[in-house]
Amino acid sequence: MRLSPASPILSALTSIAFFGLMALPGAIAAEKPSVPSTATTSYLVTNDDLAGQLPSSGTFFAIGTSGALSNPNRVNLGGSGSGGGYFAANRVSMLSNTTTPCAYISLGGSNEVSAVDINTQQDIGNFPAGSGDSGHDNGVGLANNGSYLYANFTSSQTLATYAIGSGCVLQFLSDITPIGLHAGNLKGMALHGNLMVATFGDGSIGSFNISAGVPVSNNDLQNATGYTTSRFPQGVDITQDGHYAIFGDQSTTDTIEVSDISSGKLTKTVLYDFSTAGNSSSVLLSPDGTLIYTANTSTGTVSAAFFNGSTGKVTAGCTSKQLKGFANNWNFLSSPVAELPSGTGSVLYLPEFGASSGIAVVNVTSSGGKCTLTEAAKSPVVDPDSTSLLSIGVYPPRSF
Amino acid sequence: MRRFAKWALGVQVVGLAFLSASAQLPNCPVRPNPGTVVADALSLSSQNGVLQLGLTERNGVDALGYTHFCFDYATSTGNIEAPTLRLNPGDTLSLDLTNQLNFTPAAAIAQTKYHSMDDMGSMGSTTGTASTDPCQSKIVNFNTTNLHFHGLNVPPLCHQDDVITTLIQPSTTPFKYQIQIPANEPPGLYWYHPHPHGYTAFQVNGGAAGAIVIGGIEKIKPQVSGLTERVLVIRQQFLNPLSWIPGSYQLTVNFQPATFPAEASPIIQTKPGEKQFWRVANASTQAFLDLQVLFGTTAQTLELISMDGVPVTGDPMVTDIALPPAGRAEFIMTGPPSGSTNATFVTAGYNTGPVGNANVPQVLANILPTATASQPATVVPSAPAVRVTQRFSGLAAIKPTATRSLYFSEAALGTNPPVNFFITVKGQQPKLFNANEPPAIVTNTGAVEDWTIENHTGEQHAFHMHQIHFLVMAINGVAVANPTLQDTVNVPFYSGIGPYPSVTVRMDFRDPNIAGTFVYHCHVLFHEDNGMMAKIRVDP
To answer: Which of A262, A367, B255, B329 has the fewest Cβ atoms within 10 Å of its own Cβ atom?
Structure first.
């Protein structure tokens, strides 16, 4: 059963769910994601992001041996998508919860977030934010820390905070309007503990304190190093120990920037330019923290760079061959996700956006300071329910 | 501006032409209704070696919501828009431009800026107090303007053809342009348009563009003598040019919308079987055209006379003419026979690449044979005078003094604009255009250089050089059989496989009058406004 936000049943559930939450915000905020006991199968979940039609959907693929994807199951979400948008605005956010693991899937066209129960693959409900929040043009980016879900409504340029209640139910708390140094609006965000690191697409980056849920600026808004050479951080990830924030730049080359955030604030980024590929707007740190993956959307390739978690230094790694169908079946490559929550992730999945949307499957090897990225023989896997695939998630997710 | 056009605007041509847009605007003249006879713009010709005139740039919004930017010329019977300026080599153009722009962007646009370049301070500040001297103004915004005399081989100086430092703010005091046309300027079609970086596309989208004809083409191409001449300026207007979803676009022919079947097509009259000399300017912001004259579905032979204002070598006969944004073509066409009802002037459509804009086939005008055809007043002189030596002559045989490699590239932040656009000299770091930065290229007068421009993107670009023409030597490394002098050239899109597409052009910096700093850029104006431009300095 899918409940509308106005449903009295949903309202009752929401009230029940948040009774404890409001009483004990500190305890909820400290809750750590963990692998659920009930969801034993691994899934890849897409945000089909269908614009201008109802309903949009998410599609669940079972992840099998060697990362093979099978049994797509379309889950209607009721609302509508935005049909594309920012690479760095991930529209799928996975919640590991011992009772109800769920996938949050944003609906940029109808300005809401859908919560889908992973065990049942049923839409629990759709949750709007503030009345002026809109993601119509470029989507709604999501991130969660188990206690709060943050939704970046890119058209209204507002960042909404929801409290996560039991059963994946969301309660909208409030909006803020984060703006970059050069009037850019929020693009990418990553969370670690009480810290949110954000990119603004205009060359600037900033961080927020999220200990109380709603983000409060840490007053460290600054130009990244790449700003002076027209390279602008978009995607962002944070190391497991919270020592470094890693940025993937909108650039004509594969450009990564690293900031030491061990003080709880951003420091001047160090820029690494790998000229083998183009436009690294999407970035992902491998579960073991040794590789930084970037989707090079201009060249249809994926790259891995080696990351030293002790020093924060990045060194050249490897780049795949051009993935099949680039410039013919699809035109843009977006945020990668990893199959496994450990090691290198073993297999990377990347959404391919275009007339024939699909999911690229890329095998990863890394040993002795060398790596390979090889597209699987059966890649890409067609997403039968999307013509504008830009964001995917994997369950169970990486633990940080 | 790109992805949306591919995905969302495939039906743009048949779009929003359901109302007449001819209602008088407060500031801009009436534009013609659809389905009427195409008229040439008013011609203003030099007298005793001087063409003196005043233009006032204004803006308004028509009944359909299209924002007009108009160059008004005052006459005793009212203002007319975008006159054709006719001069001869050696003449002086004395033009007083008054900026009376008064555009107020929507609050959201004013706050957030409408494209990325505003954030980069590319020309200077968007606000503040402008210098009273437009040659030193650092302010550029929606109401700033200037003029570029596209194709003319004249100095890159303030009060002449400078677009880097010349920024004219609204004022009742006119700004003086004083330009001497070189004595050896190739005779042909040029054009003028605003070029305030960051806002060029917006103003040209509004129609701020007009033709310039340098006389004397009959001296080099005597076959045009005595022919009726038409000057056809193809413009393009998006409904919401400030949005990344700018809505439907319309091509217009001398300001008349070409939106068949939503509206009747513009009508060009010829006498049955009459040969006419057509001068066609692509003054669109981003439309790549493939021009044809069709009888039914059969493309007619056109005698190509000139490209980008320079008469071509030989007398090539063609059935279509690819024209990038800002390109010009001059050709002799033959009108349909008496009784014909299926003759059309069309663009056959253009594949601009996987992430390029849609450029669909469409009728630009119906060609109607009429014994009493309404004819433009202009007839090419039929008494050729002494033939002159062409500028750039012999360029193909000159050994270049330097070679350079450049490339177009893009960095998207998503599937929609804004996109950061770059033109970069190989070996340098791609950077968005910034007028305050040093030039990317420095050379000397007297240099002749071969430049190879690659396209690393999945969409077509149009390379344009200010101040000089270049000789198109090779495409994708293959020598061009009959090189043409152009100021704007198509650079094909990259399909994702194989070597990058390229064009190789020969630059002629021998004229000391063009010494100074000027720009080269993509003439898809949204690309230029968003960074795909760089500076070159030619030292004396």
So the answer is: A367
Q: Chain A residues with CB inside 8 Å of B245's CB? A: 137
Instruction: Tell me the whole-structure pTM to 2 decimals.
Output: 0.86
Q: Residues B279-306: pLDDT tens digits?
A: 999 999 999 999 999 999 999 999 999 9
- Among chain A residues, CA nearest to B353: A327
For domain A8-395, the CATH superfamily is YVTN repeat-like/Quinoprotein amine dehydrogenase (2.130.10.10)
Phi, psi (rounded to 5 degrees) for A81: -95, -170
Chain B residues in contact with A297 (beta carbon < 8 A)? 412
Alpha-carbon distance of B373 to A227, in angstroms, equals: 60
Q: Does B118 contact A185 at a Cβ distance shorter than 8 Å?
A: no
Per-residue model confidence as pLDDT tens digits over B461-520: 999 999 999 999 999 999 999 899 999 999 999 988 889 999 999 999 999 999 999 999
Of B452, B456, B484, the closest CA to residue B470 belongs to B484
Domain boundary, last residue among B213, B236, B252: B213
Q: Which residues of A touch B (CB under 8 A)?
A: 83-89, 137-139, 157, 182-185, 187, 201-203, 229-232, 234, 250-253, 278-279, 281, 297-298, 300, 322, 326-328, 331-332, 353-354, 388, 390
ipTM of the complex in this document: 0.83
Across the interface, do B119 and A332 touch by the CB < 8 Å criterion? no
Determine, for residues A182 and B410 on separate chains, whether the beta-carbon distance falls below 8 Å: no
- Which site among A298, A329, A389 would you substitute to test the B interface, given the most B Cβ atoms closer than 10 Å to its Cβ? A298
Same domain, B183 and B268: no
Given pLDDT bands bounded at 50, 70 and 90, which one contains residue B320? very high
Contact status, residue B79 vs residue B73, Cβ threshold 8 Å: yes
The domain of B18 spans: 8-213
For residue B521, give how far its alpha carbon lies from the nearest alpha carbon of chain A (Å): 17
B14 burial (CB, 10 Å; 0-12 / 13-18 / 19+) is middle
